[in-house]
Amino acid sequence: MKFRFGLLLILLVAGCSKNETPPASYKPEAPTAKIDPSTTATVSGVVTYTGDVPKAQPIDMSQDPACVLGKVPPNFGEAYAINKGRAANVYVYIKDGLGNYSYPTPPPATLDQKGCRYVPHVLGLMVGQKLRILNSDPAMHNIHSMAHENDGWNESQYPGGDAIEKTFNKPELMIPVQCNNHPWMKMYVNVLSNPFFAVTDAEGKYTISGLPPGTYTLGFVHEKMGEKTLKITVGAKEHAVAGPAFSSADIK
Amino acid sequence: MSSSTQTAQYNPAYHRFTLFLAICTFLLIVAGALVTSNDAGLAVPDWPTSFGSLYRIPPMVGGIKYEHGHRMLAEFVGLLTIILAVWTQRKEARSWMRKLGWFMLLLVIIQGLLGGLTVKMRLPWYVSTAHAMVAQTFFSLTILMTVFASRRWIGSTVTLTRHPDPGALSFRNLALLTVLAVYMQLFFGAGFRHGGLHFFPHVVGAGIATVILVWASFSGILRFGNIKPIRGASIAILGLLVIQLLLGFGAYMTRVVWGKDAVQPRPSMVATTVAHVAVGALLLAHCFMLAVQAYRNLAPAAELSPADQKAVVA
Known about the structure:
The structure holds two protein chains of two kinds. Chain A is mostly beta strands. Chain A has one helix at residues 2-20; strands spanning 41-46, 48-50, 58-59, 75-76, 82-83, 86-87, 91-96, 109-114, 117-119, 122-126, 130-135, 141-145, 153-157, 164-167, 172-178, 186-192, 197-199, 205-211, 214-222, 226-234, 239-241, 245-247. Chain A has two domains: 34-97 and 196-252, Sandwich (Immunoglobulin-like); 104-193, Cupredoxins -  blue copper proteins (Immunoglobulin-like, Sandwich). In chain A, strands 10-16-15-12-13 form a five-stranded mixed sheet, with no helix packed on it. In chain A, strands 17-7-19-20 form a four-stranded antiparallel sheet, with no helix packed on it. The relative contact order of chain A is 0.24. The longest helix of chain B is centred in the C-terminal third of the chain and has 31 residues, at 267-297. Chain B has two domains: 1-160; 162-314. Chain B has a two-stranded parallel sheet. The radius of gyration of chain B is 21 Å and the shape is globular. Chain A binds chain B through residues 7-8, 11-12, 14-15, 18-19, 54, 57-60, 63-67, 76-77, 79, 139-140, 142, 144, 146, 152-156, 178-184, 186, and chain B through 38-45, 51, 58-59, 61-65, 67, 110, 113-114, 116-117, 120-122, 126-127, 130, 261-265.
């Protein structure tokens, strides 16, 4: 019994102290160089997929009438957005090889809730960049970030409510964001300490520009198939092409 | 205990009230399981208020209807528990019953705080698991309270004959072991369900718990079959165990095997997991009942008078 009360006390203390602790900030090394804009290079490519594409999973939005207004069912999940062997929603980033440059913080990125889905499904942010969350639906949503390195949060947003603004202070990949009011609503936020990232479009294409010349490891992350890496070298003003091939064997 | 129980009077209204509380608590466990099974634990992001209000009912759609419905039912059970504690204090002659009433109120307060912590801390597995375990403990106590308030329990107090319980491992200890085994499974199962533990301990635990529960049930039926409460609890445990194992298998298949790529909880996933939780609660309550009846009806031979030491056969 003593143990149970002791445990409860610990939990209470932990619960109370969690909200009072200021968010820990990511402290990168002090930048030592600036990128020369006259020498920057570009990397682009297509992420492909071979093998059987998993069957699209149907979504039943009928539990909230506001989600099915004007909609023609069926709806399907976005985990395997693969079209003619090309994979969308793959997060591409510079995993390794960058020097210690300084970068301006990009303007705020937007995450919308439209048709009881998150738009976009996969999003990239730089550390410190603002994320503006909108609700364009006639439904009430809650936005629950399940970060591990960054602080998690969970807030509700009324239909057409004020934008919620959040920032992430540490690099972290594939942070799940979920709406517990509509459990099919899930997306992923990726946070990087530099601005060199992209998300593949519906045709599996991506482009990362403004890179200083060098040799890099590119990371390609998919929510179900994990990560693949490729090494590339780009000279000043060059354009390199790189794209990995995921396959059904990568599905976890 | 024996001196105070002599003055206990059967109170039909009080007995019906304890039964009503037990039924409401069972429904509350089902409602809580629906919250988890529908991933709706954080659909209402604040606590103790819901969307900033203590009394206003939000639109009961999507995950909100599960989470807020669970909160409303929990408040109702909390209110019933306050009434139970006060009623027991005022009208119950047995002092241990009065203490039990207050203990249940304490437990329901702890349970409410744990529920709040799950929201405030955004569902850490250990808090959610503790919430699940206290819920089932509280439900078991409501069942025991109903038994203690029954005409049969109170009426048999004076005429009760205790039977010898020989053996290296007494039946009373075996009955206690069933409670521990179900608690172990509850911890492993809830820990897995809330994402803190691997599935493996729950599977191994199922084997261990099955052996203990089957052993205790058959012992109860074969050795003490003429003691009606022990026979009844033993048969109920056997039946519930079979159902629980089938539901556990069903929950595994629908959620882990067939539902691993599901975009949202499917009705089959929700139905099997909620039923698994509900039957688990009934199983724990019956194990508690078996232990209580074993300790009430049986005693070591050395403690019994020669007249009480008669052979017990099925």
